[in-house]
Amino acid sequence: MTDYIRKRVVVTGVGAITPIGNTPAEYWEGLISGRNGIDYITHFDASSHDCRIAGEVKNFDPHEYLERKEAKRMDRFSQFGVAAAKQAIADANLVINELNAEQVGVIIGSGIGGIKVLEDQQTVYLNRGPDRCSPFMIPMMIANMAAGLTAIQTGAKGPNNCTVTACAAGSHAIGDAFRIIQGGYAQAMICGGCEAAVTPLSVAGFAACKALSFRNDDPAHACRPFDRDRDGFVMGEGAGILILEELQHALSRGARIYGEIVGYGMTCDAYHITSPVPGGEGAARAIQLALKDAELTPEQVTYINAHGTSTPANDSNETNAIKTALGDHAYKIAVSSTKSMTGHLLGGSGGIEAVATVLAIANDHIPPTINLENPDADCDLDYVPHTSRKQKVDVALSNSFGFGGHNVTLVFKKYQ
Questions:
Q1: Which residues are catalytic?
Q2: CB 409 within 8 A of CB 271
Q3: What CA–CA distance (Å, rounded) separates 115 from 348?
């Protein structure tokens, strides 16, 4: 990154389909009001499952964004991704045409992809035979289709990719898109993450590895990041998309600028397939690398949108990583987990949490961590419990960590 002048990259549009709102405005209002989006699973009969709760997207109509035939040929995760992308493009007032199509790219990550289609088609195969499987099964199932379909729907012909790094996928997508614009390979990128994995097999699998909360008697309080009584994460679904643009390109068309993305750090624990390395060493390095990339000091950080999954292992290790990376200043930073309201969107989490981080900067308002009633002794930072906080936000980090040991930190700041 030293062989050329790095271009500045700004955020000019946001899109969000979430368990607490199906537009960016609804999502932001839900975050600031501390709205709970977690309830009993309605997508399927979960009565025989150990975990019967999730953060489902409610009242989503794909036909607001897609023709009926098109929607029918997409898994729900792709519908979410395309819908949020179209919201973000409209929010940015970005026109994609034959003059600029090759300079607008797409990177949308997903951890699971079209698992609902896979499960449904397995049932068809077993009950009716191989000849009755849908010819659309494969293109509906594969994880890159949200990125591919977004390009088809919008005409974006620039760099196109899909990150599949579990719960870090959305943040990797945004970071990689940032690098593409920095390097001059595109003028604008549609980027983020999407997921729709609240399905019988997916819920059963995560429950089997003891990752989920089994607080079925109290879904509204099941996701409780940094709390002493947390017992696992709650699955969510949806999509979060940003429009990133090269600064001069944005200025030349009079775009509104939410903030600037200035740093990207990624590491691997190289430790375990599901557990973070004790002490959070890999996450700490991601934070440090992101700040170094941004040419910022720990003392300049105002807010951290934490990975904050509500699992025993993540929350204490992430807290330790923040303290290792930021030193004494860690105790002066507001940290919150918006997963307490939305649940964990897996590959989509980095997308909606980047949207939350950018909006916190734009509005100088920090979302809360709800359900934090009895803080864990090992979790001793300022987690903005229960109620949002009006506070100037100049520099904010968004953390995402995934199975396989993937760690990502993104750095956003006020544009000036």
A1: 167, 307, 344
A2: no
A3: 14
Residue 100 to residue 42: CA distance in whole angstroms: 43
Q: Which domain does 127 fall in, by range?
A: 10-252
How far is Cα 265 from Cα 178, in angstroms, rounded to an integer?
11
**End of a domain among 224, 252, 280?**
252
d(CA 354, CA 276): 22
Residue 257 lies in a domain: no
Write out pLDDT tens, residues 360-376. 999 999 999 999 999 99
Taking residue 123's Cβ as centre, other Cβ atoms within 10 Å add up to 9
> What rounded mean pLDDT belongs to the chain?
97
Contact of 407 with 286, CB cutoff 8 Å: yes
Burial of 398 by CB count in 10 Å (0-12 exposed, 13-18 middle, 19+ buried)?
buried
Q: Identify the CATH number of the domain in which residue 281 sits.
A: 3.40.47.10
Give a yes or no: residue 230 inside a domain.
Answer: yes
User: Could you give the number of structural domains in the chain?
Assistant: 2
Amino acid 206: pLDDT: 98
Cβ atoms within 10 Å of 160's Cβ, excluding its own: 18
The answer to whether residues 43 and 199 touch, using CB atoms and an 8 Å cutoff, is: yes
For residues 248 and 268, membership in a common domain is answered with no
Give yes or no for a contact between 119 and 200, defined as CB atoms under 8 angstroms apart: yes
Mean pLDDT, range 219-243, rounded to an integer? 98
pLDDT in tens, 250-292: 999 999 999 999 999 999 999 999 999 999 999 999 999 999 9
Mean pLDDT of 7-11: 98
Residue 188 lies in a domain: yes
Q: How far apart are CA 379 and CA 316, in angstroms?
A: 6
Q: How far is CA 124 from the centre of its chain?
A: 32
Q: How far, in Å, CA of 303 to CA of 337, rounded? A: 11
Give the per-residue pLDDT at 212: 98
**Is residue 364 a part of any domain in this protein?**
yes
Residue ending a domain, choose from 225, 252, 279:
252
5 pLDDT tier (thresholds 50, 70, 90): confident
pLDDT at 3: 54
